[in-house]
Design goal:
alpha+beta; Beta-clip-like; disordered N terminus; SET_dom_sf; SET_dom; SET_domain_protein; SET domain-containing protein
Length: 355
């Protein structure tokens, strides 16, 4: 589906999505509307807690033009875990590119799960069996979430019903300790609104480029406000995304200058390069916030800002702590308190406070 949680500002490009094959996925289609309860789970939810929902948050409904889609059944605040499901199939990085391995995992499913699987959207990828094509049309890339640093991908029945928007309101993550595909709200969502995730590998592409890729790979084009502006504010979306691209490019240039000079870099030049990078990242932060891209891309921007503060050589721990604290806030909302990245930031902040 789409590349989720790539460490983009470390390689200095922005990512919002996740998956194995291509960067986008179309709206899912299906013949029957279904209603699926999803409990409001805590960060350490277990299979037993899923069977005892404390609240019904989501329902899957048929739409006139987007197939099946997931909607909220009540107002939900940012930072809420709204979906945590065990994957129907989880594959290692090596197996996810092996059609035989995908089919083998499919035939290990129970008959009800196989039926649910076969009802998922199929982009009808050429030269692939239906089972393999459905997997590549719906799987989420778990790279960046595995504790051993390996990749892998997963497919969930409910997760596969979440449609795409270039302005997402939820963030996907994979929680390895519980083997859960999790979605946290990154913005408040009103009752009756659709739950949407961003499948794009990069958030800096303008609408026309995003839509060309969507049409090429899946035969659909997104019609969110960033793609089909319905207000003066959203008419400036492409301008903001071009600004993000330019800011990232500036940071990339700074990165090259810094790495090329390495040990030979003078303190004055070190500060000069870091200051230029931080100014570009400040612009990026503003643009991401305006565009409501407040999940992975914003967290990565804050991580990069903390890194460049440290690179000045005369470390002001207060500035580093400021950006790490903001990264922590975003990651807590997007991934949960018990996510590995969230816990790593807490450790870093404790080190900064102690030293």
């Amino acid at each position: 589906m789409h590349k989720e949680f790539a460490s983009q500002l470390e390689s200095l490009s922005l990512s919002e999505g996740s998956g194995v094959s291509t960067p986008t996925q179309p709206s899912h289609t299906g013949s029957d509307a279904t209603v699926s309860p999803c409990p409001e789970l805590d960060d350490t939810s277990s299979p037993e807690s899923e069977l005892r929902p404390q609240d019904t948050l989501l329902e899957v409904l048929s739409t006139p033009d987007r197939g099946l889609a997931v909607f909220t059944r009540r107002k939900i605040k940012a930072g809420t875990l709204i979906l945590a499901e065990t994957p129907l199939i989880f594959l290692s990085k090596a197996d996810e590119n092996d059609a035989v391995a995908i089919e083998k995992e499919f035939y290990r499913l129970s008959r009800p799960d196989q039926k649910a699987y076969l009802k998922l959207f199929d982009a009808q990828k050429s030269r692939m069996s239906q089972v393999v094509s459905i997997y590549y049309s719906n799987c989420y890339n778990c790279e960046g979430f595995k504790l051993d640093g390996t990749g892998g991908s997963a497919l969930g029945a409910m997760a596969s019903r979440i449609n795409h928007s270039c302005i997402p309101n939820v963030q996907f993550s994979y929680h390895e300790p519980s083997n859960k595909m999790r979605f946290f709200t990154i913005r408040d969502i009103a009752r009756g609104k659709e739950v949407v995730s961003n499948y794009e590998r990069t958030v800096t592409d303008v609408a026309a480029k995003r839509q060309r890729k969507q049409q090429m790979y899946y035969g659909f084009t997104c019609r969110c406000e960033a793609c089909v502006p319905r207000s003066e504010f959203w008419e400036k979306s492409d301008e903001r995304r071009k600004g993000m691209h330019d800011a990232i490019r500036t940071v990339q240039v700074c990165e090259k200058r810094f790495v090329d000079r390495d040990a030979a870099i003078a303190q004055v030049e070190r500060v000069e390069i870091a200051t230029e990078a931080l100014e570009a990242l400040a612009k990026l932060e503003t643009l991401l916030s305006k565009e409501s891209l407040v999940g992975v891309p914003l967290a990565n921007a804050y991580r990069s800002m903390a890194k460049w503060e440290e690179r000045k050589g005369e470390i002001d721990s207060r500035e580093v702590m400021k950006w790490k604290t903001r990264e922590l806030e975003v990651c807590t909302n997007a991934f949960g308190k018990d996510a590995q990245r969230t816990m790593d930031i807490r450790v870093k902040l404790e080190e900064l406070r102690a030293g």
